[in-house]
Design a protein that fits this description.
mainly alpha; Four Helix Bundle (Hemerythrin (Met), subunit A); 4 helices
């Protein structure tokens, strides 16, 4: 799952890296690929939709910094939104019951 998402994001970066600037069409195409990559990685549809909407709004509103390529800037926007969605810090598990039962699905 994570490997598929990583491969899709790397493919997206290579596509956008050659662009001289981000246009609305480029951003729409890239956002569509991000949405598909998230859905193929079994991310909830509502979560993927919200993340993609925020990425698109931010990408359309951002001024391209000269020091980085448009592709790198787009990937940074996606990264920042993923971090905002999942949280920056660690969340400890408070297991009070003994023995603790943890179910891992995947």
């Amino acid at each position: 799952m994570l490997g598929v998402l990583t491969d899709k994001m790397q493919g997206l970066l290579s596509k956008i890296a050659g662009k001289k600037k981000l246009t609305e069409d480029n951003i729409s195409e890239a956002v569509s690929e991000v949405r598909m990559a998230l859905l193929e990685a079994d991310v909830n549809y509502g979560v993927a939709k919200t993340l993609v909407k925020r990425v698109k709004e931010k990408a359309l509103g951002d001024v391209v910094i000269k020091a980085v390529s448009p592709g790198q800037q787009f990937i940074k926007i996606v990264h920042d939104e993923l971090v905002a969605l999942m949280g920056e810090g660690e969340a400890p598990l408070h297991l009070t019951e003994k023995p603790a039962v943890v179910m891992l699905c995947g």
